[in-house]
Amino acid sequence: MLYLADGSFIFTNPDNNGLTILISGFLLTLSLYHFLLFFQHRNRVYLYYSLYTILIFVYLFQRADHFVLAEKAHPYQPILDFLDVPIQWTFHLIYLFFVKTFVHLRKEKPRWNKWLNMIILAYSGVLLILMVVADGLQNTEILDQWYVYFFLPTITIIALTMLYVMARMQTTLKYYVLLGSSLYLTLSWAAFGFEFAGHRATILFYGAVFLENIFFALGLGALQKKILTDKNLAQQQVIREHEINLSLQNRIKTKLDLEVEQKTKEIIELTQKNEREKRHKLAIEYTKNTLDLRMRALQTQMNPHFLFNSLNSVKHFIIKNNPEDAVFFLSKLSKLIRKILDNSQKQFTSLAEELEVMKLYLDVENIRLNKDITYTQDIAPNIDLSKTKIPPLVLQPFIENAIWHGLALIKGEKKIKIKVEKNATHLIICIKDNGIGREKAAQIKAHKTIEKESLGIELTKQRLDSFTQYLNGDVSIQFNDLKEGLRAIGTQVIINIPIK
């Protein structure tokens, strides 16, 4: 069974007994499959592997005379003969690209990655020079000699060095490359030694190609499984955080409902006893508590559009195979929502806590805007942030307006600055941006409703009025258009809050 009709051993000449066709078909299938995976996942490792296998395929297929593709290539044989060494040279360089991308060398070993890029560039330059010289002299032996006596020894040393570096990395994907490359180097150098001694051993080279690509294909399958696992973990974390936030909102709502129900029962009991004075007093207290509860409920209702866009941002990171950024963004968003829900139960908060929450809010919006916003604070030295009290979340409507009606509509650097000062009677908070200005923003939203924006600012004014009703002085909110000549360069909001 191991001999052909002419009595020769089946592996003596694999180029013409079907083995070359088998290996070539195997390589072509791998190349096309991983080329399609590249378009599906947009991961360059699939592209590099597809190029690697297709170049080995081009190197091998033309050697089987009875292979239909080899017959079609006969008119181009002089070109293929000239490109024989450059093709071998190139698929070894593509191998280096594939391996360093597969094990994330750029992230794990940046200095080695930079060094390897320089080597690949140098090899490419040498190959181009040799091709020009060989073509000019009409002598392909130059390419053969440089390949045998320069490229093969040096690329082997580099490959062994890379395998050593890779062996010290933490990723489990390294084992597929280590096994496949070790087998390839061992068998291909054995084949080269036999050939150099005058014994044909092409079968060893074919075995090296086959075994190496089996392990590489298995490694790419493991990589794809890891990507899917990371996506599933990120999605599960999004779901868990969402469930936690919903549970917290439900607990607050239940507590508010119980308080309202309890106060209602007290009023009914007092009415039944016909105690006019107590009923009047309790009615006042009930009205005050009801307004307070309504205010707390309003504070817990985050902008649905903000939440929708934030979750879409998480989805975008996940789709782009970027679970690290998705988890980072989700952590920021979760912390912001928890801060808002916690503050919804307070009548006032410290200025330090308010500025921290605003920094979180800006971080979340900034991630969604590709980190274009620069945020600065300028706090006067005579202000104790921990002892200065204001209603929670009073700055958010103004910062939201600055971002979405000013900064989001400009290109280039976007700036928001919060400046806090204090005089004898008032706390002065200034919010300044370099957006498009109120006049242009009004033109853009002329055909849109602005009731939500007006309501948010009006509610903030009412809350500040209620907070300072027993203090001397009035709350004032002033909007200023910043201009250079006739050109708008931003908007400034000045909030004056009376203090004791």
Give the strand order of the largest sheet, numbering strands 1, 2, ... along the chain.
2-4-5-7-6
Radius of gyration: 36 Å
Strand content: 5-15%
Helix content: 55-70%
Structural class: alpha+beta
Order of helices and strands: HHHHHHHHHHHHHEHEEHEEHHEE
Low-confidence regions: 1-11, 297-302, 449-453
In whole angstroms, how far apart are the ends? 103 Å
Task: Please give the largest β-sheet.
Answer: 5 strands, mixed
Number of extended strands: 7
- What overall geometry do the principal axes of the alpha carbons give? elongated
The DSSP helix count reads 17
Mean pLDDT over the residues: 78
Structural notes for this entry:
The chain is α+β, with helices and mostly antiparallel strands and 500 residues long. Among the domains are: 14-231; 374-500, Heat Shock Protein 90. It has helices at residues 19-41, 44-61, 68-72, 77-82, 84-102, 105-108, 110-137, 141-167, 174-196, 202-272, 276-300, 304-319, 323-343, 351-368, 396-405, 438-444, 451-467; strands at 349-350, 373-379, 389-390, 414-422, 426-433, 476-484, 487-498. It has a 5-stranded mixed beta sheet, with helices on one face. Strands 1-3 form a two-stranded antiparallel ribbon. Helix 5 (84-102) packs antiparallel against helix 7 (110-137) and helix 10 packs parallel to helix 13 (323-343). The longest helix has 71 residues, at 202-272.
